[in-house]
Amino acid sequence: MQTPDFLPCAHCGGTGTCRNGNAGDSCAVCIKKNKIEGQAPTGLVCSVCLGYGAIEPRTVRLRNLIAPVFALLIVYTALGLAWFFAGDEHFTEVLAFAATLIGSITGYYFAGRNKG
Ligand SMILES: [Zn+2]
Ligand SMILES: [Zn+2]
Fold it and tell me: What angle do CA 108, 113, 116 make, to 5 degrees?
């Protein structure tokens, strides 16, 4: 499943650590933004994605508003499916699917909230 809500940061290659300077050092922009005197300019936090390794497109803000409702809907649908298939020979598969779905949804939901 793709996560269209987050794009890998092009500046740090999704690592959250800037290595765009010479010999793997952080670039001038990130050094300047981090502004830690005396610290070696290596492995500094990426100033573009703030170390997340991913950036949010603007559409995510709108998406974050409907995400909780949407997430609940999907969770209930998954639970409903599991309920519907109770006793069925495919029940374990459906349950595994539902659990995975709920896990990724809640994971996304709380990750989105934390970025707030
Ligand atoms: Zn980055
Ligand atoms: Zn940089």
Answer: 130
Cα 114 from Cα 108, distance rounded (Å): 10
Ligand 2 geometric centre to CA of 20 (Å) = 6
pTM reported for the whole predicted model: 0.44
19 Cα to the center of ligand 1, angstroms: 10
Rounded to the nearest whole angstrom, what is the distance from the C-alpha of residue 12 to the centroid of ligand 2?
A: 7
User: 71 near 106, Cβ under 8 Å?
Assistant: yes
d(CA 41, CA 28): 9
Q: What is the pLDDT of residues 62-107, one digit of tens each?
A: 666 667 787 788 888 888 888 888 888 888 888 888 888 888 877 8
Residue 38 Cα to ligand 2 midpoint, Å, equals 18
